[in-house]
Amino acid sequence: MRTIGIVAEYNPFHSGHKHHLQALRQAFGRDCPVVCAMSGNWVQRGDAALADKWTRTQLALEQGIDLVLELPTLWATSSAETFALGGVGLLAATGVVDTLSFGSEAGDLASLRRVADCLRSPQWQRLLHQGLDRGLSFPVARQQAANSLLGDTADCLRFPNNNLGVEYLRAIQALKAPLTPHTIPRLGTGHDQTPAGRTCHVSASYLREKLLGEDTEDLSPYLSPGEVSRLQEDPASLSFCTQGVLARLRTMEEADFARLPDCGEGLSYRLFHAVGEASSLPALYEAAKSKRYPLSRIRRLVLWAFLGLQEEDRPPSLPYLRVLGFGPRGQQLLRQMKAQATLPVVVKPAHIRKLPLEAQQVFRLEARCTALYDLCRREFGRTPGKNEYTQNPVRIS
Q1: Which of 104, 128, 192, 229 is most exposed, with minimal Cβ within 10 Å?
Q2: Alpha carbon distance 23, 17 (integer Å)
Q3: Over 90: is that where the pLDDT of 293 sits?
């Protein structure tokens, strides 16, 4: 029997994710265990997750995930390439996952593999750097270089899930990970798109907008029973801590911005000057972005600056496997992982004290990120914040 791995944010867990699980059980059997490498309290779009990682873990376990492991913030809030390397590296290190499944607009591994192979070639690297030298942003230069070599086949990179799927395939190759890729077609409304009438699935960004706002639209077709009330109980967003973010960034010098990842080529100068004038996060993003520096990159840099993270904080690979939650099948997998995992498995936070100093430092940074996450709750102070050192994994029977 195969053990399936998924890399996800589940921000929030919605009907599209449920469809993915159902497709896996149809393809591999009802009893196949599923392990999720899930982003923690901070996500790749440069924002706080709607609900904290333990709440999202509980919801994922209730919907059929067997074991949830944390993708630490240092990888979860990075570029698609680094995000994929972290997720693939984590699943491979379990020693029990043998298949990586992901959704894609293409739904076709062959075309995604062709693009992934292209992006590993010296010819593509040469064309990419030529585009960057002309002042193109990385995404545009990347797309143009791929189109020059593959023609219309490379157009799949214009879609976010295809793009991430290509990065998973590249990561499997780069890490020599013993994972068999598997993709299913992504259905419903596209990423960051507003649905036109009823559709089978909507995007996570659409659901977040509704859950954070005062819209009374019925979201029950897209979320599990009771999920709406749990997500709306005390949601989080970086925008709820705007003054705190700007206060932190206004204490930084240009040299501090230069220590952030992917902040070269004059971007640190733009951020430093934009911070001094912006009165809101959207205004800050707008002032710093340009044709060369896309919004997604700016949002991640602002988040890293707020969290006090620097590029040097991220080690070459993950130093441990942090368990966020598990069900009965997940507990069986944890027993296997004790003998088969290639990284230490942290079930209780106290276990971190026995790990090397590098692993302890990554955990300390995660604890700081969790403490700052609580500042981004809509009703900060209403309930005690969750402490990284005392919160044990979620367990369901």
Answers
A1: 229
A2: 10
A3: no
